[in-house]
Design brief:
It contains five helices and 14 strands. The chain has 298 residues and is α+β, with helices and mostly antiparallel strands.
Amino acid sequence: MTAPPTARDLLPRILVAALLAPLLCSCGASEDELSLGPADELAVLREMVFVREEDGVSDAFDLDGRVSTDTDAEGCYHEDVVGLDGEPGIDNTFANVLPALEVAGGAALEPLIQASINDGRLLLMIGLDGIDDRRNDDCVRLRISRGMGAPAVGGDGLILPGQTFDPDPQRGESVVECAELSGGVLRGSSFSLRLELNIFDEYIDLTLLDGVLEMELLPERGYIGRIGGGVSIQEVKDNVASLDGIGDEIPAMIDSILELNADLVPDDWGNCTQMSVTFHFTAASAFYFAEPVSAAAR
């Protein structure tokens, strides 16, 4: 007979779900302004993995515009790492948490994310409007929304390209009015992504703040990129504390993990209120059904 999971067994799944939550739903402009529908170019996210750190190097973002050291109060004494090209000031403290979570859970965490993508719970759609040149364009409208449907998955375990989905009007979309496309790489900021996510029959509601998206437009409508931002540690704490049936040990462990790794947006007392996180992703061409849907339709 299999023993029930312990608090330490459940900890990685709960914290990953909390950090994944902002990406499962997006919201940006007000509902009255949104009309969800086809974009000039639309992609569906087909895989997503955490950006990690190795020997002080990480392919994440400089989210706070500063180079922090272990003596910098503005970065809550977390020394920034460097990017792949040597760029200083890179923020990605969740990479510090990943190894411990995977040891506690006994496995890598990305399969949890992949399962959400393949079964249609995480259909994150990236729309581009007003593209004049897929290599260089100084103003492309970037739209991030949530799709609905049951995706077909190929033999490689990833969503097949060219599928058509319904937009989810209840979750709206985030919009960056003028993202820049340079050398075939699109970069857009800042935006927020928010979600109500079901965990253990309870709902949590979290937001990825000051989001940054960078995406390379490949030939044949393929896409690779990364998306990052900050997650409010208080919001994670509040949501985890509201879950039933997980006892006191998990909230206490999560509180400690969050406080030790918060590195963004210090409050008036010098305590950082957010933790930085970045994901790599790949995406494939997709379509929305032709008739636009009002985001106010409920």
